[in-house]
Amino acid sequence: MILRGLVKIIYTNSDGGSRGNPGPGAIGIIVRDEGMIISKYSGFIGRNVTNNIAEYEALIMALRMAIKHTKKVTCILDSELVVKQLLGEYRIRDKKLLLLFLKVQKLQEEFEEIIYKYASRWDRFQLMADELVNEELDSNVKRTRWFFLNLL
Fold first, then answer.
1. Is 77 helix (H, G, I), strand (E, B) or coil?
2. Cβ distance 27 to 42 under 8 Å?
3. CB under 8 Å to 98, separation ≥6 — which residues?
4. Terminus-to-terminus CA distance in the chain, angstroms?
5. How far apart are CA 146 and CA 136, in angstroms?
6. Does pLDDT of 19 surpass 70?
7. Nearest of 126, 110, 129 to residue 41 by alpha carbon
8. CA–CA dist 116, 73 (Å, integer)
9. What is the DSSP string of 121-148?
C-alpha cells in the first residue's frame, strides 16, 4: 500500500492450529492497516500437522499476502516459540520447523522491514485469526464425517 510516495507499514495477525497435535491442521490470517482489515484468509493444511508447523505455515501465507500491499510489515503471532526462533532467541531443533524457518527467511528478502511480535491469543485480531482456523477445522471435520458416513 503506497501513501503519498511512502511505503506504509501494514500488520498481519496469523494463527495456525491442529486438533490432536499432530492432527488435522489449518491456518488463519488477517492483513490490516491499523484497525481496518484489508484481507482475510483461511485454509486447511493437512491431516497430520503439529501446532508449531501450522503456526509457521500461517506466517508464510501472511508474508505472501503482505507483499502484495507493502514492503514493510509487522507480523503478529500468538506463538512465542515461533517468534523467539525468528528473533534468534531459541534454537530450531526440529527438521520440519527448520525447513519452514528457511522459507520465512527467503520470503524476508522481498521486504524492506519486518517486525515480529508476540501477542496474547486474547488480542482482538488474534482472536479473529483463531476463529478462521477453527472455522476451517470445523468444516473439514464435517466433510470428513460426511465422507465416512457415506462409505457405510
1. strand
2. yes
3. 92
4. 52
5. 15
6. yes
7. 129
8. 9
9. TTSHHHHHHHHHHHHHHHHHHHHHHHHH
For each of the domains in the chain, give its residue range(s) and CATH number, in order of start: 2-151 (3.30.420.10)
User: Grid coordinates standing for 27?
Assistant: 491456518
Strand ranges (DSSP E) for the chain?
Answer: 2-3, 6-7, 9-18, 23-33, 36-49, 72-77, 113-118
What 3-state DSSP class applies to 3? strand
- pLDDT-derived band at 92 (thresholds 50, 70, 90) equals very high
**Which among 73, 59, 69, 3 is positioned nearest to 27, based on CA atoms?**
59
Whole-model pTM: value is 0.89
Place of cell 485454509: 43
Taking every pair of Cα atoms in the chain, the longest distance, rounded to a whole number of angstroms, is: 62
Residue type at position 91? R
Q: What is the CA radius of gyration of the chain?
A: 16
